[in-house]
Amino acid sequence: MVHILLFANLAQEAGTQKIEIEMDLPASVEQVRKKFKEEIGHLKGIDHCLIAVNEEYAEEMDIVKAGDTIAFIPPVSGG
Amino acid sequence: MKLFEICNAPIQTQDVINKVIHHNSGAVSVFIGTVREMTGEKQTQFLQYEAYVPMAEKQLEKIGEEIQTRWPKAKAAITHRIGTLQISDVAVTIAVSTPHRQDAFEASRYAIERIKEIVPIWKKEHYRDGEEWVGNQKGNVSYPLGHPEGIEK
After folding, report:
1. Minimal Cα distance from A29: which residue of B?
2. Domains in chain A: ranges and CATH
3. For the domain B4-133, what is the CATH code?
C-alpha cells in the first residue's frame, strides 16, 4: 500500500487530498502513476506532474516501497 | 528559531530580518512579495495559497543551502504564508544578510526565482469572473526534463 497526496487542481478534481492505493511493491514511480490513473482516473495534468517520494523529488525510475508517501506535484506557483 | 518557514498567520517582516542580522553583516536585502490586484485585464479579489508544508520547508532549506554555496558569507531566512490572502497582503518575505551589498541583492533575487521553480506551493486566483489554479509562473507548464531545472537529487 502507498499513500498518495494530491494538491491544488488535482486535489480539487479528485475531491480529496489523500488516497491510499494497494499495489504490488516495490514498484517504479512510473508504475505508481500508471496505477493511480487506472484506479482513480486520469486527472487533468497528471502526466505533467512531478512526483515526490517521501518529500523528495523523484525520477520516473526511482523505486517506491510499501508505506511510502507519493505526492503528485503540479507546476508550482509560490512567491 | 526556524529560518525557513511556511506559516498561516500574517508575516512579521521585521522578525524575518532579525533572523539574519549578525555582527558581520553589513547589508540586508529584503524581498517582499505581495498580492497584486491586476494581472493584465484580470482583477484579483483574493488569493488562496496551499503548500505541501513539510516538503516546502525542506525545499526552502535547500535554497538556503544553495545560497550558502554561492555566497558563503550570506545568511538567509524565508517565510512564505499560505491560506487566504487579500490584496496587498504579504505572501513571502526573504531576508539575506551579507558583509557587502552586492551579494545581498543577488542572493535575495536568486531566492525568489528558486521559490518559483522548486518549492511545492500553489496559488489559486479568485478573479471577479472566476477562479483558477495558477501554473508555473516561469512559463513552462510542464516539466519536459521530468523535474524542474536545477533540482539536485
Report:
1. B146
2. 2-73 (3.10.20.30)
3. 3.90.1170.40
pLDDT digits (tens, 9 = 90+) for B30-88: 999 999 999 999 999 999 999 999 999 999 999 999 999 999 999 999 999 999 999 99
Task: Report ipTM (2 d.p.).
Answer: 0.97
Distances (CA, A) of B20 to A68, B4, B16, B103: 36, 11, 7, 14
Are residues A78 and B52, on separate chains, in Cβ contact within 8 Å? Answer: no
Residues of B in contact with A58 (CB under 8 A): 153
Indicate the pLDDT class of residue A1, thresholds 50, 70 and 90: very high
Place of cell 547589508: B27
Chain B residues touching A12 at Cβ < 8 A: 133
Q: What is the pLDDT of residues A7-28, one digit of tens each?
A: 999 999 999 999 999 999 999 9
pLDDT of B106 above 90: yes
Closest partner residue to B33 among A59, A73, A79, by Cβ? Answer: A79
Tell me which chain A residue has its CA closest to the CA of residue B79. Answer: A79
Tell if the CB–CB gap between A55 and B55 is shorter than 8 Å: yes
In a 3-state reduction of DSSP, which class is residue B52? coil
Grid coordinates representing B91 are 505572501
For B135, counting Cβ atoms within 10 Å of its Cβ (0-12 exposed, 13-18 middle, 19+ buried), the class is buried
A59 contact residues in B (CB cutoff 8 A): 146-147, 153
